[in-house]
Amino acid sequence: MWLKPDENLLKNAFKLWVTEEDNEYFVLQRRRGYGEGGGGLTGLLVGTLDTVLDSTSKVAPYRILHHTPDSQVYWSIACGVTKEEINEHWEWLQQNIMRTLSVFDSSEDITSFVQGKIRGLIAEEGKASLVLEEDPEKFREALFKFEKWFELPPQEKLVTYYSCSYWRGKVPCQGWLYLSTNFLCFYSYLLGSEVKMIISWDEIWRLEKTSNVILTESIHVQAHGEDHYFSMLLHLNETFVIMEQLANYSIKRLFDKEDFKREPALSDPLQITKRGLEAHAKSEQFRTFFRLPKEENLLEVHESFLWVPFSHFNTLGKICLSENYLCFASQDGSQCHIIIPMREVINVERSDPSSRALTVCVRGKRALRFSEVRDYQRLANTLRSRCGISASPQHSASSEVIRGECQSLINHFEDNPEDVTLMVGQKDSSKAVSTEALMTVFHPQDVENLDPKMLKEKMKEQSWNIHFSEYGRGTSMFFTRKTRDLIVRGVPEALRGELWMLFSGAVNDMATHPGYYTDLVEQSLGTSTLATDEIERDLHRSLPEHPAFQSDTGISALRRVLTAYAYRNPKIGYCQAMNILTSVLLLYAKEEEAFWLLVAVCERMLPDYFNRRIIGALVDQAVFEDLIRENLPQLVEHMTDLSFFSSVSLSWFLTLFISVLPIESAVNVVDCFFYDGIKAILQLGLAVLDYNMEALISCHDDAEAVTILNKFFDSVTNKDSPLPPTVQQASVGSNDKASHVSVDISELIREAYEKYGNIRSEEVESSRKRNKLHVIQTLEDTTKQNVIRVVTQEVKFGASQLDEIYNLFKRQHFLCCYWTMQSPTLLHHDPSLAYLEQYQLGFQQFSVLFSLLEPWAFCSSKSTLSLWVFRLIDENQDGLVNFKEFCCTLDILYSGSFTNKLKFLFKLHLPPAFDLPEDGVIRKTPERGRGKVDLQAYLKQWQNEILKKEETIKDLPRINQSQFIQFSKTLYNIFHGDPEEEPLYRAVAHVTSLLLRMEEVGRRLQEPSSPPESAKPANTAAAVAVPPTEEASSTLERSDTCSSTNSQEAETDWSFSFEQVLASLLNEPTIVSFFERPVDLKTKLGQARVAQLKLKGIK
């Protein structure tokens, strides 16, 4: 590797370096302790220095220095890990530089020329790969170490690196932590003790910051049941964030199969950078806070003041700009924030250059004034271009008019703060697809009804109208603490749908996709999938007590929304609990609005909730357990096992308390959820447990605790609900309700906010990321245990051996996914399938892993024989091999009897393994996912497996001439390199000769009148019987070719049954003892574990 020329003084360096070659201008040196001899104590000291010092030129075993005869200064210009690598550089210098140097007159000119040439080479090398790194030169050095120490495939992309200490027990090892796209690596070398560690991100169970008495602050990584601690990091928080992002990126890419097409910085695993990860994390945080679509990315951030009319002062905060939105949040994020879609902006003006201010005019006669914006002119131009506002001369007249209107609005707000009625925006008037909100149809408000509940409802509406007049209405409304206070008190029935759309961000989705829902309904109409079958089954289970879903109107609307969403997002399709949630959405929102609300919930607000493994809900339950430990210590002391709360609270999270609370109370919870997200559900869960603390502490078992909570939920009421009894949901335990004091939902929610409102959304998101690793790995471990339990019944391997084989099998599945986003292997992983089918290997993956684990080294990853093995064990001929099929094959080769091993080898040379063309591996494309599932085919396959009888040796067909020749070749390949190679070759030759003579005698007995044709069998016998030297190999090839070109009559001249082959081989003790010799599987597994990552041919 060429290095940026660095000055060296060699006064004491000769103690550490040995000169290998030199000339007038260059010196090639080898580091003491490397190469021949090892270097003894000097080598140990040198190795320790190499690890601790931060310079590649001091670490590499070889280096090249430049000098001039009249100077004592040397310049390091190249280094190398191997002698071959450094010799390439040396030869290049000899051929391209040495001849040129003679033309220079002075030493300074020579040195300047050499340095310029080397810098040019470095720039050319790094032009493509290192252009995005912050410090390309240092990064090249770190990359050099990374490749040298860990020997990972060259595709692996190093993201960043840090100096740190790794704790082995109570002893710290100073070294370097390398974070790459797919691996966490650490290297340390101190006085002969080398520590090298490689952990893939998809194997990590826990990743968290910790502190204790010994380690003031460290990063804890748990993988493979082992705990690893890294400390003494100069930038610990930065390191942890990058590690968390890489682990999360790996989980999303490999387990969730999420693509990053819209994010160029992450779309290619080979181009991941620290900067790209940081930008992705900021964009994700930006979208979450402002509830924006997934397509939006944070492009610019500007610190500024915003004039807030309702408070009569400028509030400090940050302007956040994405492709289609201008957002502002005050400094603490809770005082106020506002979201302005670009489609709503009608003009942008630089109103006051002295205060660096700009004014944004929005539809609905609204204007926002930002001041003290550092780069306000560029920001104004950016906003204009994104909004399509022209600043050309021909529009100057209209611009002047708009500017005048904007300025008059600003002046009006500043001079007359009490008169802010102009800030009332226009409600969105987009037409609903078909129906009104079901609540307006089945429970229209009676204007003349003046009972106390209706009066209170009207008072709530009035409060909100006053709020709208002060803070705005619609997409550009200010969100403040007062907004949350109104939410906690309860949203009026008439405004619920509008506010849900606004708070969730669904209003923006619907506005930017006009006609989308109508098209989806038309396209999905009449489709028949597993999802639609499940939807039909659950339609009448959705709020069955409510009149809206006792009629065809409500049922049809529910069917259309759920079917359209399943068509839009087949990855989720349909999941139980979606019907209950959608039913409530349809009560208060129009049908199209309900669809977009469902999109917001499933894809943004509750990620990964609605799939087969409900990972999102399990993650939030783990977050909930953490919050219980922090906030309810008395409960934790009494109930040490908090998994009870996970099981009982699952429905709380999946249905937002709708399934456990009466509908009139549950909608208040949904109000809070749409405003505060999952934080509102967590707070309410804590409040419920806190309210029932004494009863839960005194209960004796889980059943009693469940009864206590169920009775509590039955006692929750909404005293302000204007709904009549016919609409209100009947409580399950209403008969004994009198024994419980009723609890008002508004009071419960208010208490939740008062006691637990200090929980920050950022902390919840951080806890989600931390717990997601553990949840996914727990699910993966459950899958592994189930698979091993099934396979154990079929093989003789122990549970620990199967565990190691499974880990290798799974890693092999993921290896080819590490370096590409579009790997077809990702299609082979479907968590919704049966456990055995979740991880499967295609031919390329199988051949690599099988070549590492098979006991006799007869099957290289590129050999034709590996293809035959793959075809033989791929019983259902779908081009994929599952774990059970793979293990059964290894079991035969390691633990099978001599007869079973020979039968396996015999079957390799029969159809379907032997005869198919080499490109015909995958015979049919397997159906994946939940789109179309042929249940009849599954039942038929299951029936065949039950009725399948054990194959006997008499069931095997006879082997013909060409197949037998190849069978003999396979035996020779197996015996190659064995200590008993020569006796084994002679035994095979003897057996083949004996079989051919037996066949010839048998044919003569059957046809006594035919003249003997001994030439062909004799030639074939000679070809097979000779051990496979180079001459014999060519003889075998000629014989094989000759046999394939002969007539059909020649092909059927002779053949052997398995019994004949078995009987002949049993008479050779050398062969029998070879196949019955035990093979150390543990050693093989250890070697495979090391070699698996080092294979350069991984694709």
From TrEMBL:
Report the locations given in the UniProt record.
Answer: Cytoplasm, Cytosol
PROSITE patterns for the chain: EF_HAND_1, EF_HAND_2, TBC_RABGAP
For this UniProt record, the keywords arranged alphabetically read as follows: Calcium, Cytoplasm, GTPase activation, Metal-binding, Repeat
Q: Which PANTHER family match?
A: PROTEIN VASCULAR ASSOCIATED DEATH 1, CHLOROPLASTIC, TBC1 DOMAIN FAMILY MEMBER 8B
The entry's function note states: Involved in vesicular recycling, probably as a RAB11B GTPase-activating protein.
Q: What is its main location?
A: cytoplasm
Q: Give the organism the record lists.
A: Eleginops maclovinus
Instruction: Provide the taxonomic classification.
Output: Eukaryota, Metazoa, Chordata, Craniata, Vertebrata
Organism's domain of life? Eukaryota
Q: What is this protein called?
A: TBC1 domain family member 8B
Key word Cytoplasm present in the record? yes
Q: How does it assemble?
A: Interacts (via domain Rab-GAP TBC) with RAB11B (in GTP-bound form).
User: Which terms does the UniProt entry file under GO BP?
Assistant: glomerular filtration
Q: Cite a single GO MF annotation.
A: GTPase activator activity
Q: Pfam families from the entry?
A: GRAM (PF02893), RabGAP-TBC (PF00566)
